[in-house]
Amino acid sequence: MKIDEIKDAALKYFTIHGYEGASLSQIAEEVGMKKQSIYAHFKGKDDLFLQVLRDAKEAELASKIEYFDHADSTDPEKDLYRYLRLVIDLFQKNEQLKFWLRMTFFPPAHLAKAIEKEVIEIETEIQAILKRKFKDWIDAKAIYGDTPKIPTLAFVGVVDTIMISLVYDNDEKRLQDKLEACWTVFWRGISHP
């Protein structure tokens, strides 16, 4: 399908050159069409960019939902640590998610509000999933706590630390050290009264 080919090429050029450096001409040439033909599928560069961005957001969300749908809910220590590893793997190995991560931290200025809306939307959805998991674990006495809000937000803070490291730091050892330190403190906090 031509739309998917255009979005794949756009992902490539937006990832390599950023929004400003990517051109519709390059993207059109990549898929063997004229620049004007892109307008039959997209309103313009902003529309194409935002559709590629939303596809990446949906890929992240689908991966995380699938993970929790298949996770063993009786072992929060294993489930949560593996989730953190999943986040690292997703954003290190998947080009679509590398693009999503970069653009959420460094959005084109004129699209910042639209991208912020996408980020808040996915964060709200993922936090709701995590909150339900933490409630189940608290109810099952698998972790300590009175309300799922506190461990959910603390865990999101651990994830945010990893995301910042993935954006700003290419040192695998530093990333692993941060993961282990944050994980140790977090797990100690919810596994002991």
Q: Short description, anyone?
A:
Helices cover 80% and strands 0% of the residues.
Radius of gyration: 19 Å
Elements, N to C (H/E): HHHHHHHHH
Main beta-sheet annotation: none
Strand content: under 5%
The outline comes out as: elongated
Termini separation comes to: 56 Å
Rounded average pLDDT: 95
Write up this protein.
- The protein is mainly alpha-helical and 193 residues long.
- Helix content is 80%, strand content 0%.
- The protein has nine helices and no strands.
- It has helices at residues 2-21, 24-30, 35-38, 45-70, 76-93, 95-105, 112-139, 149-168, 172-191.
- Helix 5 (76-93) runs parallel beside helix 8 (149-168).
- The longest helix has 28 residues, at 112-139.
- The termini are far apart.
List its traits:
single chain, 193 residues, mainly alpha, elongated
Topology:
Elements: H1 2-21, H2 24-30, H3 35-38, H4 45-70, H5 76-93, H6 95-105, H7 112-139, H8 149-168, H9 172-191
Helix pairs in contact: 1-2, 1-4, 1-6, 4-5, 4-6, 4-7, 5-6, 5-8, 7-8, 8-9
